[in-house]
Design goal:
The structure is a single chain. The protein is an alpha/beta fold and 448 residues long. The chain contains 14 helices and 18 strands. It has helices spanning 16-28, 34-49, 54-70, 120-130, 215-224, 233-236, 277-280, 319-332, 337-351, 362-382, 388-391, 398-407, 412-422, 431-435, and strands at residues 6-7, 80-81, 95-98, 102-108, 111-118, 135-138, 140-142, 154-156, 162-167, 181-186, 201-206, 225-231, 237-239, 245-247, 264-268, 285-289, 295-299, 302-306. A hairpin with a 5-residue loop joins strand 13 (237-239) and strand 14.
């Protein structure tokens, strides 16, 4: 699948319904000031006249986009549509997320410090909800699942919900995360191909954490999704007798033959050691996260580094999942790969500043959405027609986009402190005592 996307306003009006909606727009947008009202009415006339003067219309559309950029106005009818076909009566969600919910238990010194909702699916759907990305989630839990959700998982009566214990004081062990040791205490049933919906999706995400993604399930995903994103932990995690997470080489995982059919694979810097990046990049795009140092993107013809965002680490759990959610959300909203990776880095940094599943301040989310829309509009002026090569090119203004996203975090301090007060923890302990010295180091975090 190509990530080429088209501007809806460049299409001529062809039906009475769309014509009616276009003429209704000035009424709905009457609260905008005079310049925007003027642009709306001009665009209406141009849309109608584009049936007869397409060249003049396309040229003037470009002029209007520049005017809107200069005056920070939303361009009328500026809507991104994907190449995925959808039926008018039953529009499909843009993203399919596949991975089980979990119960995460955080421990230090043998004592439970916090219990939270876990699983990559929970962190990704959290980001998608904040950024207004439609999705369908396929996840399994047991009858013991204890968190209320807006998106109901598949309940397996004969199974228990997957449970992970994260030990923050067991030191460095082979194949373990450097900041903690993970143990799978319970495992829910795997997700089978028959559990997936019988629909097509523009994007698919295989994001298992407890071994629930099967090779045949991933194969079904690449059949029903135009572009599939895979978190490598869904492929290379194995579990010792006591549940400790270990990693195996990607070429030993049973998924290796499917890589040419995958579009993106994401790995942390530690997980990337278990694959041959130079070989895998010949088949699909590889995104490697480096925590406080941002991330790197590798594809067949090149590679690039994407800048980080500063963060005070409290809990690294789920940061890589939030990164992937922000990255895919950026692509869904029409950004090129480098800009979408910035959105991923931003949400990774926001996640480590809270314990467990983060609560994003609504003001931050709105500002991020505004910046993404503004960036999309700017890049549409640079790339009227986008191909795969331009999708991996840093467009003009990339660093400015980074700065604008960084500025959205300035409103987060109070909201993060409020969220932390709501989370359960033993009275004698503070957040700093929970994590230890790492919590006092700015930007010192790693992605799960």
């Amino acid at each position: 699948m190509k990530f080429t996307q088209y501007l809806a306003f460049s299409l001529p009006i062809k039906t009475p319904l769309t014509l009616f909606l276009h003429f209704l727009t000035p009424i709905v947008l009457s609260s905008f000031h005079t310049l925007h009202f003027f642009l709306v009415n001009i665009s209406l006339s141009l849309s109608f006249s584009s049936l007869f003067f397409p060249s003049f219309f396309n040229g003037f559309s470009y002029f209007l986009k520049l005017v809107c950029l200069r005056n920070t106005l939303p361009f009328p009818f500026f809507t991104m549509v994907t190449t995925t076909s959808q039926t008018p009566n039953s529009p499909i969600p843009s993203v399919l997320i596949v991975g089980n919910y979990c119960h995460d238990v955080l421990l230090q010194g043998g004592a439970v410090v916090a219990e939270t909702l876990g699983g990559a699916a929970s962190f990704i759907s959290n980001v998608f909800s904040g950024l207004s990305v439609s999705f369908h989630l396929t996840s399994k839990v047991g009858l013991d699942f204890k968190y209320p959700l807006n998106y109901n998982p598949i309940v397996v009566p004969a199974s228990k919900t997957t449970v992970f214990h994260a030990y923050f004081d067991l030191g460095y062990t082979e194949n373990a995360h450097q900041d903690r040791v993970l143990k799978r205490v319970e495992a829910c049933d795997p997700i089978n191909p028959s559990d997936l919906p019988d629909k097509r999706f523009g994007f698919g995400m295989a994001v298992g954490v407890g071994g629930e993604i099967l090779p045949e399930t991933l194969e079904k995903m690449v059949e029903i999704c135009d572009a599939v994103f895979v978190d490598i932990q869904a492929l290379i995690r194995v579990f010792e007798a006591n549940g400790t997470v270990k990693l195996v080489g990607l070429n030993e995982s049973g998924f290796y033959h499917l890589l040419p059919r995958v579009k993106f694979i994401k790995a942390s810097s530690e997980e990337a050691l278990f694959m041959d990046v130079e070989e895998v990049r010949q088949w699909c795009c590889v995104v490697v996260t480096h925590g406080k140092d941002g991330c790197e993107v590798y594809w067949k013809d090149g590679e690039m580094k994407i800048g980080p965002f500063g963060a005070n680490q409290i809990d690294p759990t789920g940061a890589g999942d939030s990164f992937l959610g922000g990255f895919v959300a950026g692509l869904v909203h029409g950004l090129v790969v480098p800009d979408a990776a910035l959105v991923g880095n931003l949400f990774g940094s926001l996640t480590v500043a809270q314990i467990g599943l983060p609560r994003f301040d609504s003001r931050i989310l709105q500002r991020v959405k505004d910046e993404v829309q503004r960036r999309k509009l700017h890049c549409s002026c640079c790339f009227e027609r986008r191909d795969d090569k331009s999708s991996f090119t840093k467009p003009p203004g990339h660093e400015e986009f980074h700065d604008s996203l960084a500025s959205t975090k300035l409103v987060s301090t109070c909201s993060v402190q409020e969220c932390q007060r709501d989370l359960p923890r033993p009275p004698p302990r503070t957040t700093e005592q929970f994590i230890g010295p790492a919590a006092k180091v700015v930007s010192n975090f790693r992605f799960r």
